[in-house]
Amino acid sequence: MSVKTDNMDEKKILKKLGRGDANALAELLDMYQDFVYTIARRMVKQKEAAEEITQDVFVKVYYKLHTFKKDSKFSTWLYTIVYRTCLNRLQKKSRLVNDSSLPDKDDGGPLYDEHAIESWRDDQDYDRREILWQAVDKLKMEQGLVITLYYLQQLSVKETAKVMSIPENTVKTHLARGRNNLKQILLNEYLQEDLI
Amino acid sequence: MSSHLEDFDFEQYVRRGKKGLSKIQYKHFIECNDCQTKMSKHRELNELLTELSPQKMSVSIYEELVSKLGLKPVKPKRDWYIISIIGLFLFIIISITFFSEPLSSKHSSYISELMPQSIQISWEKYSLEPLARAAKKMQGSLPGNEPLVLFIFALIVILVYYLFDSIIIKQRLKVKT
Predict the structure, then answer these.
(1) What pTM was computed for the model?
(2) Do A132 and B8 touch (CB under 8 A)?
(3) How far apart are CA A119 and CA B56, in angstroms?
(4) Quick one: pLDDT at residue A132?
């Protein structure tokens, strides 16, 4: 299916969704659910949280659909919602941690579950894709997100900058550093055979 | 000699080819071994990154979303189905007419008249007799109960239609998990 046809289908789906058609929602989920989830995973680093965010995002999409400018790209608008929803959640989480009487465990490091990664490492069934995602998850959040938006979602630098509300040059910097760090992680932590 | 290419220049070259670089940059690139080595390393990582595919959710959120948003499933337009069903119905009617006609005694005698003698013998001996017998049997039941037969066929067609329709709708509503 060509990009033009995809866009036409997408427009039809959005129109139907605007009228409250549940089938249109199913089709939209079919198209974007996994992408939304993948971005959320990169940001919150937790499976369950990412699933909740994915659901929240589609609720927001439904209620804010009338604010979407039809001449712009739907995916860029959607990923902006994902990004902001994740940021809000991370900010709330960070506030909760600060307000808590428990010692602050957040040392600025990644929020991923290290035990899960250890057990994952022991699992011999993982494949190349999972290795890559695990490596991406070890990057700083912004770098991992830029890599995901740029390579997986195939957004341009301009679109990525729009989603993250940052200058294009910052995107380029994140992209360059992210790539270098990713290369180092892959070389240091994974055997060459894992990736071949 | 111009300065070496930067990371993003390599990226532009990988994505857009020669157009991704300015003339000066491209000239530098084809003359600079250092940049070419960096480019091949860049390509290696890029090839790896293009293998990234979206991760899948372990649960389906469709049902929950539908109830949360208070949406009601809307049946899709079925013009295509109706056309195909009418087509199927017509096909059955034509089939019945086509197959019942040659079996009638009136037509079998007409065919035998048209046939050469040698074929006629073998036709009558090996084909016509059993066929005629079968036709006679059918004549007893078919023409008399024609409306009943058509009614049964119509029922089957409607049943098949709903069966296919429900499967297709289920597939349409099925959301990737």
Answers:
(1) 0.62
(2) no
(3) 20
(4) 86
CB-CB neighbors (< 8 A) of A55 in chain B: 61, 64-65, 68
Please indicate whether residue A179 or residue A192 has the higher confidence score (pLDDT): A179
Give the gap in angstroms from C-alpha B57 to the nearest C-alpha of chain A. 7
Q: Where in chain A is the domain with CATH 1.10.1740.10?
A: 1-108
pLDDT of A78 higher than 90: yes
Q: Tell me: the pLDDT tens digits for B37-53?
A: 888 888 888 888 888 88
Q: What does DSSP assign to residue B76?
A: P
Domain A112-196 is found in CATH 1.10.10.10: yes
Q: What sections of B52-145 are H helices per DSSP? A: 62-69, 79-100, 105-114, 117-122, 129-141
> Which CATH fold would you assign to the domain A1-108?
Rna Polymerase Sigma Factor; Chain: A (1.10.1740)
Intervals of CATH 1.10.10.10 along chain A: 112-196
Residue A55 has pLDDT above 60, yes or no: yes
**Chains A, B: CB pairs < 8 Å:** 105
Number of continuous H segments (helices) and E segments (strands) in chain B: 9, 0
The predicted complex's ipTM stands at 0.70
